[in-house]
Design brief:
Blueprint (H helix, E strand, L loop, with lengths): L8 H9 L4 H9 L14 E2 L2 E2 H4 L9 H11 L21 H15 L1 H5 L4 H10 L27 H15 L5 H10 L19 H11 L1 H7 L1
Antiparallel strand pairs: 1-2
């Protein structure tokens, strides 16, 4: 059942006429299957079609029945949202790759204290390989994000950094409709069955911090969301 949404005719016209926003809204609401991260498809089968083997090569856009099956299997239902600028719902309109990079930056900034204490060469090399363009570059931005911190980790890992950023983004849109949050989740890689980070340890990102991060590192996302 679709979630109810209240929108005036003028608001609807404004939304449809926004050349930057409307295509993303349209695809997010009515053609979402193609945006699901491949990791969520593992184990799904339709006849002889095995998603665990096909991964990113699956052409969901060419088969309506496969799209419907994927969405039904994941619990994605029809709904509507007008995506105003003031509720951060437009974050969910960003592509999965961009959301993942934002998560990496948020996590690295929030865990920067722990990251500074990493000194062994093997771990430093692993962080550079897994967070290219983020680590160690993040240390040049921490002065602007002093309030963006979380508790310390025992044995900091790359996964912990990324999960922290992802959970902080999720907390930022926690008050939005369930179906929007569900679709946001499916755009990002599937977390492990044994999460390293507790969502309760990852507070929402302060609006000023999120706007500044997007402005500095993700100008296209800043233009869309802010």
């Amino acid at each position: 059942m679709a979630e109810e949404a209240n929108i005036t005719m003028d608001e609807a016209r404004g939304l449809v006429s926004d050349a930057a926003l409307w295509p993303r809204v349209r695809d997010f609401l009515w053609d979402f299957a193609a945006q699901v991260h491949p990791s969520w498809l593992n184990g799904l089968t339709v006849g002889r079609l095995d998603f665990a083997n096909l991964g990113e090569t699956v052409k969901l856009s060419n088969c309506q029945s496969v799209k419907r099956y994927v969405l039904d299997s994941l619990g994605v239902e029809p709904f509507f949202h007008s995506f105003p600028k003031d509720d951060w719902s437009r974050l969910a309109l960003l592509d999965g790759a961009t959301l993942l990079e934002i998560s990496k930056w948020l996590g690295a900034l929030a865990c920067s204290g722990d990251l500074r204490r990493v000194t062994d060469g093997k771990t430093v090399k692993a962080l550079k390989a897994a967070l290219p363009g983020v680590y160690p570059e993040v240390f040049g931005f921490t002065e602007y994000f002093k309030s963006l911190t979380v508790g310390q980790f025992d044995g900091l890992t790359v996964d912990a950094v990324v999960e922290t950023g992802r959970e902080m983004l999720a907390a930022t849109i926690a008050e939005l409709p369930e179906q929007l949050k569900l679709r946001f989740k499916f755009k990002l890689p599937k977390p492990s069955d044994d999460p390293i980070v507790k969502p309760s340890d990852c507070p929402p990102v302060k609006p000023a911090n999120l706007r500044l991060l997007l402005k500095l590192k993700f100008p296209e996302a800043h233009s869309l969301c802010c």
